[in-house]
Every structure is written in C-alpha cells, then in structure tokens.
Amino acid sequence: xxxxxxxLLDEMYEEVEIDVAYVIEDYNDIDSLMDKLQxxxxxxEVIYYHVAMEYLTEHDTSLQESLGxxxxxxxxxxNLNSETLxxxxxxxxxxxxxxxxxxxxxxLFFSE
Length: 112
Fold this sequence. Notes:
The chain is mainly alpha-helical and 112 residues long.
C-alpha cells in the first residue's frame, strides 16, 4: 500500500472509526465499497451513558439534531435515551464524513 493510501485510511479511521483498510481489498469499484462502508456505519453503536453524554455534549448540545433524527426514524419519547440519540447522531456524522472521502478513495484506489 502506498503512503498516500495508508495516510488516507488512517485519517478515515480517526474520523469515522471504521477500519476501511480491512475491507477495501475486497472491492473492485468505489460504488460497491461505499455500499459496504454504509452498512458498517449502521453497525456503529454508542454504549454507556457517559460515552453517549460526552458525544452529545460535543456534537449536539441542544439535542435538536439528534432528536430530529430520532423523529425521522419513528422513535417515540418512551423508547429514547442518550445512547440511542448518540448512536443515531454518530451514524449520521460518520455517513456524511464517508461521502466526503469518496472522491479521494476513488482516485487513490480505483483509478489507473
């Protein structure tokens, strides 16, 4: 793996906490890879109250974004908690961040 490729994958791991290096070799085109990465985004889960509260405090102090996501997913107040809100927000943020990397991934790994 080239230095630029490794640097990108390390940066992505820092940003989205998905080990893209682990799965990238199994794919021959960017669209298939992006589909797989989106599947992995849905596996992201925030567990433990204190971790969830830290994430929400850092990324959505007012809870408006995470509550909006929960509403869009059909959640009701009786089945919401900080872990659910943080999980939904973290998945949303990871998905957005992954799509920002799409062109760079395609250039470094799929163009000849």
